[in-house]
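FYI - complex with adenosine-5'-diphosphate, inputs then prediction.
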Amino acid sequence: MQKNRHSMLTSLLLVSGSAFVFGFMIGQPGWTVAIAVFLWALYQIKQFNRLSEWLLDREEQSEPPESSGHWGEVFDELSRINRRQESREKLLRNVINRFQESTTALPDAIVIVDANNNLEWWNNSANRLLGLNDSSDRGKPVMNLLRDPRFIRYFKRQDYSDPITLPSPAHSDLQIQFQITPFGDGDRLLVARDVTRIRRLEQTRQDFVANASHELRTPLTVIRGYLETFLDQELPRPLVRGLGSMHQQTRRMENLVSDLLLLSRLEASHHISDEQPIQLHNMVQNILEGAEQLSQGRGGHQFVIELDDEHDLTGQEIELHSAFSNLVYNAVRYTPAGGRIRIRFWSDKDGGHFSVKDNGPGIESIHLPRLTERFYRVDESRSSASGGTGLGLAIVKHVLARHGGQLTIKSKVNKGSNFTCHFPAEAVIKKEVEVVDDEPLIIHQEQSDNGSSHPSL
Ligand code: ADP
């Protein structure tokens, strides 16, 4: 443009210079220069008008007008810019078209929700899976169209690390998994996937395990009953050993079957419906009696109990008993004789916490994320010798999930392990019984050599 300004100035000087010479020759230099400059200005105005007409009318006339001189240069430059922009636009349009084609082909519903929670854009599958309507729903609040209270809670929660599965608002027989990803300035991308088939397969698997376990129960009880009757008789030694081993294995299978049945029941629903106040002192006392018996057969352990005497938990008693006893029995089973096992319950602003800590062999960190998987064992030989079913921690995880809680595991090889069940603040209640002492109840119970001491909670 600098060049054009110069050439415009040059042309003005040329025109007025020539007019001056010509005017001088005819004896009217002033008038001649004035007329020449006036004509020159008219020409510039005309070119300027052509440019503004083209700028206003660019949709219909893609190329700028033809011209010569410095206006020609301006028009050529504009034409180049125009062409560059058109090719960029074309590229962008292609990308958008390809993106829309690919999202249309996707079987998953994709919905863009803006920062004001309104529906901005969605693909065809969203019409089918979520019942959205292209013409009437654009710009409407997402929560007016996806009204399930569980979805609304999930949408408002802002923590989208886990997906949520709900029936489709358009077809109640379809199960839809919703996953939200925040992006941009408060916008959210909602992906909804049809998981009906996977859910059905999962249900079939759960039903199969539950039915098979149920069917195995009666034959196992009969076999154990006969074995116990035989073992009560006077029998030759090899037979006693064989029958004794059969009896032990039958007990193991019975434990496995009852753990599998419990897991199936826990899986059947994600929330407890019959919660009640739990008297933790009594529950821990009861678990401790079982743990002591187990400990006696393994050389004895030292138990330390520290329970908050002001608070209890609400929940499903049988399930919590099962979860806590699994942790305590594991500590006894995996901690060598003479080891120390500390059972604690305390509450704080985050909720209630029940922990079982031992100074046993500990667990290598690579195993920790997988410990709650069914039948996952750190050391197969040590675990099967311990008499466990391999389902204990899976049961703990499910029980806690049903109570809105979670399990954390800390462990160091050769130092010991600490399993803590965390419960939400809503699950912590003030104790019903009045306590005299201000201090939290701390009981140190040491198992004597003959295992005869009992804690008094
Ligand atoms: P199992 O019936 O084998 O004990 P669990 O699900 O209860 O099954 O535990 C899974 C695995 O975690 C166990 O096999 C064991 O290797 C490890 N484990 C559990 N508790 C402890 C503990 N207190 N100390 C060391 N290892 C443990």
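The chain has a mean pLDDT of 87. The chain has four domains: 2-100, 107-194, 200-268, 276-456.
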